[in-house]
Amino acid sequence: MTLVVKNLHAIVKETGEEILKGVDLTVPTGEVHAIMGPNGNGKSTLVSTIMGYPAYEVTTGTVTFDGQDVLSRSITERAQLGLFLGMQYPAEIPGVKNIDFIRQAMNATQPEGQTVPVLEFLQQLNEAKQLLKMPDDITDRYLNVGFSGGEKKRNEVLQMMMLKPKLAILDEIDSGLDIDALRIVANGINHMRTPQFSALLITHYERLLEYVKPDRIHVMVDGRVVQSGGPELADELEKGGYAKFEQMSKDGVHE
Hints:
By secondary structure, this protein is α/β, with parallel strands linked by helices. The chain has nine helices and twelve strands.
């Protein structure tokens, strides 16, 4: 169930501005990878493009998952392949109960004509809420309406735990979290780790990676991955920032 991104170029449909300028990235089955980089350099655009967000248009390149073409499929079909996106800014949806949204999402990813049994669903939901230290009434409230920033991020992880994707893409799931909430979110991610599960984390901060130990880190600058390495790369970024990697991008150096 490997994700392979090759020479991916994408533009903003409305303006024609190119954001992704030849991204190459591989996330093998069973591994957790992190992408780090300065703001405004294409990290969120990359994950949105992988999931089919309509504001972006792919002009060149390919994305495959488990050998299957991702870009030709609808968002629902991408989810059915086993892809999941935890959003940086989860939307508030008045009138839609959190519990109903999660159950509908789970049923939408089941084989045609099948649904998740109610008792099984409720048992899994309660176990996930307990692990994430979420209040009992969180699922009876409207989706993200009145949620704190930390509750919104934990709710994204709750959805991930319920949907059990093969690849979870988490876009700045750690932003705005205090240290206790960060540990809880990290526990949810680590709870998912099996040889059949992989994850791609978008983050600016090394502290998430202290709790969720990544197998590999990629540095993204100006719409490209300019360097990849092991966990020690996060230490280098923490100490020296992105100046070295921004210069690598200007010089056209990719490692």
